[in-house]
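Review box. Two proteins, two foldings.
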Amino acid sequence: MEPLAQRLRPRTLDEVCGQRHLLAPGQVFRRTIDSGKIPNMIFYGPSGVGKTTVAGIIAANSGMRLYKLNGTTASTSDIKSVLGDIGTLNAEGGILLYLDEIQYFNKRQQQSLLECVEQGTVTLIASTTENPYFYVYNALLSRCTVFEFKSLTAQDIEQGLRGAARRLGEADGIPVAIPQDALSYLAQSAGGDMRKALGNLEFAVTAAPVQDGTRTVTLEMVTQVAQRTAMRYDKLGDDHYDIVSAYQKSMRGSDPDAALHYLARLLEAGDLPSACRRLMVCACEDVGLAYPQIIPIVKAAVDAANMLGLPEARIPLADAVVLVATSPKSNSAYKGIDAALADVRAGRSGPIPRQLQNKHFDGEDAAVKGQHYRYAHDYPHHWVKQQYLPDAIKDRKYYTFGDNKNEQAAAAYWNRVKDGE
């Protein structure tokens, strides 16, 4: 039997749940589609949010012949077959090619579309769950307008589920009732994916007994169908990078609640390595010298987490995440090494000063004999003024003391020492 998501696919843009930033009357996208002049477009966003549905509605109202290809299965010969209909009676109204998962097309396959897209003999609507600026060939990308489809909210999905339940009841001749608690659970557990939500609904409705002429879907039923959230997560996709980015930025921004939320999402997806790696990076990069003792503390927590494994790993990681989020912050050393690396990569360097070299003899061509290295421990406070950087960058400054208590104490100490030279 045809899946519920396919049977109940919206037939007009007004029936599509969510994506109001594109589909609401007055929006540029909506006005363009309503004009009947369909440009080449790329739809970018997670699965189950309406990309294919909207493309189908556009095609149905455009008068053009719709061809569908999927990047995971289509070959170059499939593309040639579509292009072979250009100018024939099969496509007298024009060709609209819907290419799903375009990121799986290689460069040669994408290039094969260029000429007809540029000439206007084919209108292309492509969709992708990955960032098109990374995965779509630049020449093709420049000929298309990118529109981002966003994850559906629980309210969007509730709206779709209500309509689906009503239409299911009409089709079967038996009304379907879903109490609010069951409806909310289905909507929340779908993780923004309408297709997933409809699949769970169909399963629950099929299992629901008929009582007094009505099928009632209870909370107990839907919790069995959707026991685990359909949280979007792909270790190689945009969702992964968005979550780990938010995780580190929340710690850096000293928000322990948000940091724990993103830690939970990483752990629920089973991505213990990313949770540990970003935590360790944040301790070094963002707390750094404001509280340098945090580095071995976090390392111990990470070691404990990896030794314990999930689910117990959540405990030492939560301790460390809260500690990092609530610690004073300094990126002074991080900025210092990046500045030093920039100089090295740009060739701003030079010979090692003679007094620092490892050799203790001079060649016959040396103008000044002797290494003249000053051993710091032979001087008061174990410090003596001496040039350490190469001549070409001898006055270069990479490190500036941070304004936190720890670094300011070190700055005050060295100011006293060096002022008394």
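Next protein.
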Amino acid sequence: MDDNDNICKFNSARNDSEYIGILNFVHEKGAGIMPHFIVHSVFRLHLILGGTGSVETHACRVSLAPGDVFVTFPSSEYKITSTNTLEYVYVSFVGLRAYKLLDRIGIKKNAFVKHDMSELTPFWLSALKKATSENIDLLAESVLLFTIGNMSDAAHDETPVSGEKTVLYLKKQAEERFADPDVDLKSLCAEIYYNPKYASAIFKKQMGVCFSEYITSLRINNALRLIEKGYTSVKQIAAESGFHDAPYFTRVFKQYEGITPKEHILAQNTIKFNSSPKK
């Protein structure tokens, strides 16, 4: 095909069941605390603009920060709590197509939040500013579809939705897979389609250390165990403890233990020699 040839891509025809209706486009400023669960008969797609807070259902509670996007479902109770002047915008919508769209990108009642989508904020605010009674349906539907399209890069089926579950998952993976040098926070989050920045923040908040420090400590502890077992090859100890190479392992080991692996091996051998029965 010549580079100058036209490109024509066809979209499959849709029937009436593909209807989606926009009800309103709302900007909530200084949203206060909702002391009780509420329920609506429509979907709502929310984008956090500022402040902090949380959204809670009977299944889970998720912390919210600027750039987070979440969906609430018809006839499903939820409450939004503001802890620091939470501000958000939302689009309310109905229609059979809504279920299909959300199912397509893996949004469910127990996995309904997408973090760190602040790049969408200018588009939302521009559409809201331009909205009038004549075009609000078009602008709000554009916002809705554009946002859902950007959420489609994440399959949420296996994503832990609560902070506690996320930390437990990361902790378990680190303890089981620390010997793989390619395992880090970014790779683990990619496996579950989770935002690394958000995961890093909640991990440090609950564990008191960042994830990289935690998995490094596991690797160093494993190296110490191997040395106690009698391993003497620094290269082998590094490889079996999750380090890409011996020089890097040596630098990290010295940072943690104050001496190099070779010095520690020598010290261990001296202790064993001095403690062995004399003939």
